[in-house]
Amino acid sequence: MSDPGCKTISQLRVECRGISLAARVLGQVDELNKKDSSNGKPCWELKLRDAGDVLVLRAWSDTDAFRSCVELQRGECVEIEGEFGINGAFGLDAKRWRLRVLNNEETQALFVGGEAELAAVEKDYADVVQFVSEIRDPRLLSLCRLFLEDFGTRFKRAAAARQNHHAHRGGLLRHTGQMMRTASALCAAYSHLNRDLLLTGVLFHDCGKLWEVCPPESGFEIPRELRGELLGHISIGIELVNALWRKLPLEEWREVIPSSEDARLHLLHLIAAHHGELQYGSPVEPKTPEAIALNMIDNLDARLEMIAAAYIKQPEIAPGIHERVRTLNTSPVKPLPIWP
């Protein structure tokens, strides 16, 4: 964002440590509930979501913000201006805040994102397209291109999860782009890996999340969809690959070795096994070098993203030591700075 007074929620979490900061933040009303405190004083609890984080604010009955919330609707986009700080009981909080509903032009600009967000999206997508163009197997190359042509727009806005890692609009593209860069580097170190298959597996491993955890065109909220709830992203991903595979001109490649059927089955195995273990939702465990590599790359990127988020969101319980993160099963410690 070009306006220095306008911050993202994540920026506020970092910049407000130990100080109060007068600032503005833009976001979408995710939830709005009227509650009573323990002493019977009414308040509105507003859950605000932006492209990368969530903020919960409380508007008490004797404030202008309380009166503004009376007319507010879930899904509306707003500007919150106030004095932000870290409250020990509530985390990031705001005092004397006021609210303004954004107009249509401002709302559309919010979903498009600022210059930094747009540049990051375009960089990740360009990297994905570049890695796809390097695939030599014509079946896998055609499959990847067909996916990007048919679902590229939805792919750019899908989340990678509902919580834990990359759980925000555009999170799946960020996750996939980084995994492709890692997969390419890994193949340079382990030359026996099938680079074409692994890159294709990275692109498709979470493709079912386009229907399991995908915000609408104009929204940050990650709604629940019947398909995602009933089938889950692994089943949806297998179904999608099979549907796209049937559109390929397979007759042109009848003499190609390995056979098209073998290529399809190995790709489906990568999708089915990418969680690594049956207890984590994979219907089968990894049985090929590429399946093992994909599971490790997926887990590596997820865990590194979670610890990066922990440095922002988790309070320090001692100098350089952050509050325990359940999903990482550890208390993150600030990393050693890189040598200049």
Summarize this, please?
The protein is of the alpha+beta class. It folds into 2 domains: 6-108, Beta Barrel (OB fold (Dihydrolipoamide Acetyltransferase, E2P)), CATH 2.40.50; 114-306, Hypothetical protein af1432. It is built from 11 helices and 8 strands.
Order of helices and strands: EHEEEHEEHHHHHHHHHEE
- List low-pLDDT spans: none
For the record, the CATH architecture of the largest domain stands as Orthogonal Bundle
Major β-sheet, in short? Answer: 6 strands, mixed
Q: State the separation between the terminal residues, measured CA to CA.
A: 28 Å
What share of residues are in beta strands?
A: 15-25%
Category by helix and strand content: alpha+beta
- Overall geometry: elongated
What CATH calls the topology of the largest domain is Hypothetical protein af1432
Number of helical segments?
11
Task: Work out the radius of gyration.
Answer: 23 Å
* Averaged pLDDT: 93
User: How many domains?
Assistant: 2
Q: What percent of the residues sit in helical stretches (DSSP H or I)?
A: 40-55%
For the record, what CATH class of the largest domain applies? Mainly Alpha
